[in-house]
Amino acid sequence: MHKNQHPSDSKTQLEIEKFILKKLKLESGKHTSLKKGAYVDIDGKNRAGYYEVYAHTGKLKPAQLYKVMNDAIKLFLAARNNKKRNKVIIFTDRIAEKQFTGLSWRAIALRELGIKTITFNKLSKLLIRKLKRDRALQARILIR
After folding, report:
1. How far apart, in whole angstroms, are the C-alpha atoms of residue 41 and residue 13?
2. Cα–Cα distance between 18 and 5 in angstroms, integer?
3. Residue 75 burial (CB < 10 Å; 0-12/13-18/19+)?
4. Is there a domain that residue 2 lies in?
5. Labelling 79: which of 65, 69, 116, 143 has CA 20 to 30 A away?
6. Residue 5 falls within a domain, yes or no?
7. Do 91 and 119 meet the contact criterion of CB atoms below 8 Å apart?
8. CATH of the domain at 127
């Protein structure tokens, strides 16, 4: 497991994250400085903004919703000193993104924080199959 890798991150999720960052020409946002020596680890950044990638298919479970909202706070903090910078959460599935749009409290919170959501829909069928396979495997492991 990579030093900064979250225990629930699958190898495929990390592969997808790197693929999206490369396609969008984003550099790593690891150790993005805040004030007084504090920092946040975000997935990507460029001159236009800060980005988090959420590689998932289907409806999110409560802990996953929490993770996305946690990522939103990190984006907000990273951009706090430069409000003109974009703050974007990139989803790999419209169903997952939908839980953060519309009239839900999460969608309202993201809008209040100036955070946009998009769906990156240029993943290969192979990567999508691998992501779904990993998700099914994680679900089986959690049930045991």
Report:
1. 16
2. 13
3. buried
4. no
5. 65
6. no
7. yes
8. 3.40.1350
Type of residue numbered 97: E
In the predicted structure, residue 60 carries a pLDDT above the cut 80: yes
pTM of the model: 0.85
Q: Residue 5's pLDDT is what?
A: 47
Distance CA 11, CA 5 (A): 10
Q: Is the C-alpha dihedral spanning 143, 54, 66, 59 positive or negative?
A: negative
Provide the residue range defining the domain that includes 86: 11-143
Nearest residue to 78 (alpha-carbon basis) of 109, 101, 103, 46: 46
Helix 11-23, helix 125-143: angle, nearest 10: 150
Which tokens hold the place of 77?
A: 């903090």
Q: How far apart are CA 82 and CA 60, in angstroms?
A: 31
Number of domains in the chain: 1
Residue indicated by tokens 């679900």: 139
Percent residues over pLDDT 70 in the chain: 88
Q: Under DSSP, is residue 39 helix (H, G, I), strand (E, B) or coil?
A: strand
| Helix, strand, coil percentages, rounded to 5, for the chain | 45, 20, 35
Instruction: Label residue 80 by pLDDT band (50, 70, 90).
Output: confident
* 83 domain-assigned: yes
